[in-house]
Amino acid sequence: MKVYRRPPTVSESIVQQLKEDIIKGVYVPGERMKILDLAKRFGVSQTSVREALKVLQKSDLVTEVPHKGYFVTELSLEELMDMWKIKEELWSLAFSWFAERATNEQIKRAKECVYQFRDAYLENDVDKAFEANFALTDVILEGCGSRKLVSLLQSIEDQAKRYRYLSLEYDDNLRVSSQYFVELIRAIEKRNVRKTEQLIREYMKFSGTVLRKNYDKITSKMKESQAIQRFIKI
What we know:
The protein is mostly helical and 234 residues long. It has two domains: 10-74, Orthogonal Bundle (Arc Repressor Mutant, subunit A); 77-221, Four Helix Bundle (Hemerythrin (Met), subunit A), CATH 1.20.120. The protein is 76% helix and 4% strand. The chain contains nine helices and three strands; from the N terminus they run H-E-H-H-E-E-H-H-H-H-H-H. The chain is globular and about 55 Å long. The N and C termini lie far apart (52 Å).
């Protein structure tokens, strides 16, 4: 039986677009999200924009400053490293439970995402790799069997994705990520929970090291993106 899915509301559509914009650097940490400008951009009421910003605030993607408005949340290196440690613990559970609980069909879909990521690495296509990466994690969340864990990870990943996206360009990240993902899917296919957990922890430590090493470059690139966007608007 076909399941009916209601179309997204206006504010939900704005939330999704602004999430993508923040991740891709259209809006960068510290930048003010001007309600009037956003209302004009989307052709909606300021009320719809405020509703969307309230949702983004719950994910800590934006911060409300009294009497000043909404700003894209900034993360210090220390905060980012704390986040990555939390991610390591949560993803080790998610991948382990996926290896134990996922259906064969879900494992097949995860494998397809892994090889899409590998193809993106071979093409040196960061955008394609990014999409494949999070298509993979969506399957992992679906098959891990814990709604609470899914909720926790979705919240933290909203903040982490923008840094993850930019970090893919550094330290041979695409190649190493592809290698880890291939090893992970092999362990998952064998239902080897211990190996799966070991690999995802190693991988999270690697990605955290890349971020720590290149934090200044990544934040500088975010600021450059902001400058370019302002120039285009002028």
